[in-house]
Amino acid sequence: MLSQTISIPDTPNVSLVAFYGTKPTALKLFIESLQTRISEALDNSFECYLLEQVHATIIGCEGLKTEKGILSKWFLEHRGEERYIKLADFINYVRQSDRLPIHVKIGGYAPKIDYGFLSQNKHPFERSFQFLGNIAVSIGWSLRERKISRDLDRFRLECQNFNLLHKYHKHPNSVDNDCYMRIGVIKGKVNDREIKKIEREIQNSLRNISPIHLSIGFDNLKFVRYQDLALSLDKTQIISLKNATEDKVEKFYPSR
Questions:
Q1: Is the pLDDT of residue 2 over 70?
Q2: Residue 1 lies in a domain
Q3: Long-range pairs for 29-38 at CB < 8 Å and ≥24 separation?
Q4: Furthest-apart CA atoms within the chain: distance in Å
Q5: Does residue 2 sit within a domain?
Q6: Structural domains in the chain (count)
Q7: Within a domain: 198
Q8: Residue 99: which domain range?
């Protein structure tokens, strides 16, 4: 099988992200406030990501340049399918898609309200802030008439038309509707009870904030060539959606 003869590296590779670099003021203040609160709670054993590197991954575009084209990583690894990314068509799709802009709400999710959606079988209140392993993550969702819509998940699903499989769409019925941002990482050991306490305190505070409303679209989408999952500023190359071409983005990919 092809999957047994070719290994596509995790890094360096390519992704489509939003809000990398410059951010709306409300998002900037939200991230800074959250980072400060976690740092104080963990007695400075929390390493904040630089504000500019915090981002929302829209879809991973990982692949490998081969003689036949750019081999799609997640179709190969999750589905065992040999597919080649239709890069030019994908760039045009993102620019012209009626799925965009996607409007996302961060914060303001009350635990007793039914939003018509569970994220990994958990209420949005609980998922609005979590430590996933040692990484602090803030998550938001698109909302219509007080119900969470699946706008982001549907956008990711449509990317399959260009042979891009979202990393978390491992199975045909998988759903990933989360707009998630990594904001920092725990350094050293912190006991689980303390982690859960901080999580719940922040979740409770986020339910009461004035929500942050974001619009994901043409002006804030970028293709990135990353060498670590945190998208460190000194190791990441970027091309804005506005300036993206097939040739420019193709140069970001590792070669066989």
A1: no
A2: no
A3: 30/106, 30/107, 30/138, 30/209, 30/212, 31/138, 31/181, 31/183, 34/129, 34/136, 34/138, 34/183, 34/202, 35/183, 35/184, 37/202, 37/205, 38/136, 38/183, 38/184, 38/198, 38/202
A4: 54
A5: no
A6: 1
A7: yes
A8: 10-250
Q: 5-25: per-residue pLDDT in tens?
A: 788 989 999 999 999 999 999
User: Which residue in this structure is represented by tokens 């569970």?
Assistant: 118
pTM exceeding the 0.70 threshold for the entire prediction:
yes
| Amino acid identity at 43 | D
22: in domain:
yes
- Identify the sign of the CA torsion 180, 10, 61, 122: negative
Is the pLDDT at 3 greater than 60? The verdict is no
Residue 148 burial by Cβ neighbours in a 10 Å radius (0-12, 13-18, 19+): buried
pLDDT digits (tens, 9 = 90+) for 91-147: 999 999 999 999 999 999 999 999 999 999 999 999 999 999 999 999 999 988 889
| Distance between CA atoms of residues 28 and 21, nearest Å | 10
